[in-house]
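Response to reviewer comment R2.3. The reviewers asked that we include at least one raw input/output pair. We reproduce the pair for Ras protein m ras here without editing.
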Amino acid sequence: MASRRLPADTWNGPRYKIVVVGDGGVGKSALTIQYFQRMFAEYHDPTIEDSYMQNKEIDGQWCILDVLDTAGQDEFSVMREQYMRRGQGFIIVFSVTDPQSFKQVRRFHTQILRAKDCESYPMILAGNKIDLVHQRIITEEQGQELAKELMVCFIYQGLYVFCNRTVWVFRLASYL
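Raw output as returned:
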């Protein structure tokens, strides 16, 4: 028997709003496109805001994943608090090839907690671009230490690492 997909506006099951944040150029859009379209985008225009939805089975229950891919550039920071208030879970992405993006993780973490007015919230720290072996600056251990300090989960991945490409969304959605 074939399964039937319901339009998102008639769905009465769980819907998880996940927001992907991080500095510009860390691979937020590439990760999101890889997850939803199962393809690597060689080139992508800088994002202002893109939204992706998909029905998925997580922990034996069907749900709608509503993932918001956000702008990393500072000129769009005014929009940040608005989508941080709407999000139910967050993925903070940094590039292991860019120490500045790693330093900015704390700023994103603080902004999320401030927008949510709480001391902790479901988040994953994702170290991206590990497949760029000769350009790696931030180690897995540094990422793990920061994640432990911020009390969030940690994933160290690259787009070409097939086994990890969907783990980040499933792991976060299972916490919500």
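Residues 105-116 form the longest helix (12 residues). The beta strands are 15-21, 49-58, 61-70, 89-95, 123-128, 153-156. Further pairs are available on request from the corresponding author.
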